[in-house]
């Protein structure tokens, strides 16, 4: 609560306040706003602030109130659709004019010197950085990128419904990756064939896999694209819908799926079976289906891509 009037003295009857949830100490910003009213301009040489402390106030809490920095004021202004429509009705004002004079844009301009300084530092660091065998490193990186593109082209063939659908039986272990997040290995529970309803022309069919996965993808440090990636020690498994284009690995292993997976215990036990299979196989990892010998993909373009690998 702020005061909109000058006063000779400002008194805090308590240094704790109720913020609607619990009681807490007055923040530095609240103290600055209210204590700043002490002292009338042109009448008082100084103002007086009195704080009535009716409970133990630690040194850290007192320092945070009296000498702490106020919370930064960051603008969250943005133009909404309704605001944009209203601006179009006024000829003298356009969205660029409004944004240019907003506090948000003022803060962005204020950050420019620091950003420019950081840019110069990064450019200097880049110019002074020297790599041993830079040509070899560059060549290696290009090979990695080319290999990634070739593998993705190969998987575009493998994910075609005429090749992959017959292998997505319940219990099949598949590896899921989407938007750069590696979710590791999961268990196929069901495969559903759907039709797009928003098409005016002939209906387009697509497939959705009900897959048992961990709710959270493994961290980047523990995630691995290899078949030997470890599963979480405390699984929190859930049956999630997955598109075909998220599949990046198909194992030859199939697990026995219980009839009832409604309980978390049943889902977690089935998900934990993946780790048990890996331990049983040892360091060899999960065996993968071969696109040619197992899935019988004989497309000429696919064979050419495979020869490149």
Order of helices and strands: EEEHEHHHHHHEEEEEHH
Uncertain spans, ≥5 residues at pLDDT below 50? 220-233
Q: In percent, how helical is the residue content? A: 25-40%
Structural class: alpha+beta
Beta-strand portion reads: 15-25%
Quickly name the level 1 CATH class of the largest domain: Mainly Beta
Averaging pLDDT over every residue, what do you get?
85
Rg is: 32 Å
CATH 2nd-level architecture of the largest domain: Beta Barrel
C-alpha geometry: elongated
Number of helices: 9
Strand order of the largest sheet: 8-7-6-5-9
What is the terminal separation in angstroms? 69 Å
Number of domains: 3
CATH topology value of the largest domain: Elongation Factor Tu (Ef-tu), domain 3
Q: How would a textbook summarize the main sheet?
A: 5 strands, antiparallel
Pfam family, one: MTR4-like_stalk
GO molecular function: ATP binding; helicase activity; hydrolase activity
Keywords: ATP-binding, Helicase, Hydrolase, Nucleotide-binding
Organism: Mesocestoides corti (Flatworm)
